[in-house]
């Protein structure tokens, strides 16, 4: 983990890691044991797992490119949570079995809904550092580290 990842950044990375493990485990079990029952739901669980893994890595690795990857991934995650959450409320037959994003992540204490909001807030807060606009006293650090990690 980057030496600059402290405070809220570390918490976000930890929560993304936990959700990555949860979504990966869920999707592997669902796909291995009962894929034919709800292939769309189980594929969404696998997509969510990949999204959480990529977001976690993008928050850890410094650099402008990874900052952009984090932004795109977290916006995709937020869109997925909102779309799947809404569809799971409107048409329960679309999802015969739950995904991590069903009902806005209710099965995970709504962490899938809150996490992208927190992630986007944190990325926005650290945007100046990521694009090289940090204060002059941090110039030496910014030359070595230009990314979202705190």
Which segments are poorly predicted (pLDDT under 50) over 5 or more consecutive residues? 134-146
Helix content: 55-70%
- Order of helix and strand elements from N to C terminus: HHHHHH
Number of helices: 6
Measured between the Cα atoms of the first and last residue, the distance is 10 Å
**Fraction of residues in β-strands:** under 5%
Number of strands: 0
User: Could you say which overall geometry the principal axes of the C-alpha atoms support?
Assistant: elongated
Architecture overview:
The structure is a single chain. With 150 residues, the chain is an all-alpha fold. The protein has one domain (8-142). 67% of the residues lie in helices and 0% in strands. The protein contains six helices and no strands. The protein is elongated. The model is unreliable at 134-146 (pLDDT under 50).
